[in-house]
UniProtKB/TrEMBL annotation:
<dbReference type="GO" id="GO:0071949">
    <property type="term" value="F:FAD binding"/>
</dbReference>
<dbReference type="InterPro" id="IPR050416">
    <property type="entry name" value="FAD-linked_Oxidoreductase"/>
</dbReference>
<dbReference type="InterPro" id="IPR006094">
    <property type="entry name" value="Oxid_FAD_bind_N"/>
</dbReference>
<dbReference type="Pfam" id="PF01565">
    <property type="entry name" value="FAD_binding_4"/>
</dbReference>
<dbReference type="GO" id="GO:0016491">
    <property type="term" value="F:oxidoreductase activity"/>
</dbReference>
<keyword id="KW-0285">Flavoprotein</keyword>
<feature type="domain" description="FAD-binding PCMH-type">
    <location>
        <begin position="59"/>
        <end position="230"/>
    </location>
</feature>
<protein>
    <submittedName>
        <fullName>FAD-binding domain-containing protein</fullName>
    </submittedName>
</protein>
<dbReference type="InterPro" id="IPR016169">
    <property type="entry name" value="FAD-bd_PCMH_sub2"/>
</dbReference>
<keyword id="KW-0274">FAD</keyword>
<keyword id="KW-0560">Oxidoreductase</keyword>
<feature type="signal peptide">
    <location>
        <begin position="1"/>
        <end position="18"/>
    </location>
</feature>
<dbReference type="InterPro" id="IPR036318">
    <property type="entry name" value="FAD-bd_PCMH-like_sf"/>
</dbReference>
<dbReference type="InterPro" id="IPR016166">
    <property type="entry name" value="FAD-bd_PCMH"/>
</dbReference>
<comment type="similarity">
    <text>Belongs to the oxygen-dependent FAD-linked oxidoreductase family.</text>
</comment>
<keyword id="KW-0732">Signal</keyword>
Amino acid sequence: MKVYTLIQMLLSATLSFAQDQNATMACSSIENLLGPTKVQSSGLQFEAGATGAWNLANAQLRPACIVFPLETSDVQVAMKSIFKSNARYAVQAGGHSAMEGWDNSQGGVLILFSQMNNISYNQETNTISMEPGLTWGEATNAMEPFGVAPVGGRASAVGTGLLLGGGISFLSPAHGFGADNIKCLDVVLVDGTLVVATVDNEYADLFRALKGGGSRYGIVTKYELYAVHTGTSADKPWIGGTIVYPSSSVEAVINATAHYVQTVGDPRAVSLVNVIISGEITAMAQVELFYNVTDTNTTTLPSSIFGELLSIPASSTNITQLSYLEVLNTNPAGNNSGSGETFGAGVFSTAESTQVYLDARAHWDNFTQAVAGTGAYFFTSLIFTPIPSSQVEAGRARGGNAIHAPLGGYVALNLGDQLTLGVAQPPPEADEAKLLFLNQLHRSPGFPFFMNECDKRQNVYETYGDYEFMKKTYMKYDPTRFIVEHMSGPPGL
């Protein structure tokens, strides 16, 4: 047994050395072609790029070099060299991934989009053209003078990579997943070839696969998105804000959340995000409610939709008239948390009973008690995000996506944990407790996990309605399986 372990260690070390050598060769090749400004392995810009990820587990990874592309052709050059050198690599847009290794690469090549942040609005086609280096806060601010917005993230610091995982927006109940609002994609394939993918051209299969398939099919260097007319900052067409509930109200909030998912299908009820937070076992609830009104003189949330939640005793309530930009800024997220972040996904259909929600809370309580003594956690949270049938229907009207969720609506669950400042990884016993929670959590068959909020070990693809199509499409565009073998990301292809 000891001999076998030693052989394994030697093989692993040999493989790691070979991978490092391949990355060094790729870095040298890319630098020769693009120059030292765009390709760096040391210095202030390199350090900022290498350590800038939101999740400390990714910010601690050390790439062999960082490519800072200024245009799509730079990405083509980089990908050709990476492919030829057989090197490991990662791609980072906003860097807001809780999954270790998904947006940085230890000893590999990191393609960082921080310098590609152009955005423009075409009034004639009502489309937004944007590069991947932008955050949703930057994109929404840039579009605000035109009275439009992209269907992007719910936190201002999240980046465009959100679209490739599907993407949930405050606009989603009426307009679909963020991915459903993509009109056109510029995509650099694994060998460096540039293609333009749309819903009805020769790359329509690639287009559909990228709408929810993550980064497994190529590198997107430009998005053309359908714009939504949201008004300027002077307009206040939204009512909403944040309600915080004490521990004594948590069970009532869970019940009300279940009833909301089961009964509410109004696409103007643009978001209900339920966050249950635990410091040292004592729980509280934070709920964000928004409604897109037709009469801007309205100053209260409709009781027919939110009445049960509004009737529950709260610690604080902040409901007011808002512009869309103010809605987005309700949930600002920093670029670097300084601690490890972990996620885990679940899903309940609208047909599930209220007891299923209470059971989830009970399992979560067991998890929080199991990890409380480790001292590794700043907080843990159980988040419920309703996905109404109107959201799925809006996506189908635009040609569909790889997620291919059934009609009827569901709620996406997220176990979101932030570790103590400076702690990058949970201790083994806490990770085991997390996996136990995810295994105990009821899952409605046929309904998809949300990739952007999953555990890196969860096979999200197999929960998608288009799973077989995705596997076939992946093999078409990457027949040597280079991407899945050289870049960390969702398993299952």
